[in-house]
Amino acid sequence: MNFSNILIKWYLQNKRDLPWRKTADPYQIWLSEIMLQQTRVAQGMPYFFAFTEEFPTVFDLANASEEQVLKLWQGLGYYSRARNLHKTAKYVADDLNGSFPPSYKELLNLKGVGEYTAAAIASFSYNEAVPVVDGNVFRVLSRYFDIESDIAQPTAKKEFTKLAYELMPKDNPAIFNQAIMEFGALQCVPKSPNCSVCVFNDSCLALQKNKVDSLPVKSKKVKITNRFFNYLVLEDILGNTIVQKRTAKGIWHNLYEFPLFESSEIVDFNTVAGIVKNDMFSFHTIVGIEECSEAAIIHKLSHQHLHIQFWKIKINEALEKGIDLKTLKSFPFPIVIYNFIEKL
């Protein structure tokens, strides 16, 4: 079909030089696809190199500890991806003798692997004719064909998948999948695409109807929750501190943090002093309390905005299980906490 031919020609002339495009190894392709979920290529690339250097095979990744994996993942966000990555590596190494499932349907059984990731691995590694459908694909197809289906609805996914499959050359599905994703990432971008230089500017229905900015249609809006975190950074007479592991389900599961109290709003010095002296650390001799920044740090997650304040609490004794700064930096932390530690 003309659309596919033009798209693939554009891709061959404009594609980025990305390491996971130089291999059919399902391990490396799986790694890259998990890392690129909710993540820009420029941000994910250094992590891909770090992981493939530290864990060159799925067996190496499986044999690592979860803390090693989380530490190497630190800063990439959406940490459930890293935990699922580690669990899946163990399953592939231990139960499948290191061989990834060889088909789209079987790949869906892996933890952390959804329809998009399974389609990417199946087409790039095994040349299986399965279309990938992500935000880029929704955008390209909805604009080119003027499709107003709400992409937040499950029925839209089926509609776009069917269309992509019809457009896909069945003898080379991998290049079509790469091409349409790359086109959405580089040319048919979400805001202000340069349609004047687009290879489809004489056939794109959205451009002809002046609807580029209104497609794709997405009605579902994410509800943002505001949370207020107050981290208490103890410093004893030796300069040591303490941290705790977040074992509860939710954000940052199994990462480390300083002792925390969560409030319903931004709190002042007197509130913190009262909680420190009368509640959380009443058994210590407090010699000083200091707020570490003039304003709360706002750390934005997909569904939550965290308003974070750090408070340094100096005590006049040695902590029983105190940790020095060098050891502290070896723990996996949420990046907002690690950045604070780097300034200590």
UniProtKB/TrEMBL annotation:
It comes from Flavobacterium soyae. Gene3D superfamilies: Helix-hairpin-Helix base-excision DNA repair enzymes (C-terminal) (1.10.1670.10), Hypothetical protein, domain 2 (1.10.340.30). The lineage of its organism: Bacteria, Pseudomonadati, Bacteroidota, Flavobacteriia, Flavobacteriales. Its cofactor is [4Fe-4S] cluster. It holds the Pfam family NUDIX_4. Belongs to the Nth/MutY family. Its EC number is 3.2.2.31. Binds 1 [4Fe-4S] cluster. NCBIfam families: mutY (TIGR01084). Adenine glycosylase active on G-A mispairs. MutY also corrects error-prone DNA synthesis past GO lesions which are due to the oxidatively damaged form of guanine: 7,8-dihydro-8-oxoguanine (8-oxo-dGTP). It catalyses: Hydrolyzes free adenine bases from 7,8-dihydro-8-oxoguanine:adenine mismatched double-stranded DNA, leaving an apurinic site. GO terms for molecular function: purine-specific mismatch base pair DNA N-glycosylase activity. This is Adenine DNA glycosylase. Residues 35-186 form the HhH-GPD domain. It is an enzyme of class 3 (hydrolase). Keywords: 4Fe-4S, DNA damage, DNA repair, Glycosidase, Hydrolase, Iron, Iron-sulfur, Metal-binding. The gene is mutY.
